[in-house]
Design brief:
The chain is mainly α and 71 residues long. It has one helix and no strands.
Length: 71
């Protein structure tokens, strides 16, 4: 093989290694973000359930109450 061809092949190998590393890092970041999103969705669900139970404990939905009498 010529020196020029060998140099070009080595450069391609280095670039491929960099691309492989970048793809792996992006996949790991994506997996971490997906886990965080799931955790946030669970927390939001729990907070909504807690808010609903607090509303129920305080007398239900204020929209379902009859209007106050007018004097």
């Amino acid at each position: 093989m010529s020196a020029d061809l060998e140099r070009r092949l080595e450069e391609l190998e280095v670039r491929l290694a960099f691309v492989d590393h970048t793809v792996s890092a992006l996949a790991a970041a994506d997996a971490e973000q997906a886990m965080r999103l799931l955790a946030l969705e669970r927390v939001l669900h729990d907070l909504r359930a807690e808010l609903a139970s607090l509303r129920t404990a305080q007398g239900g939905d204020p929209h379902s109450e009859p209007p106050p009498p007018h004097y």
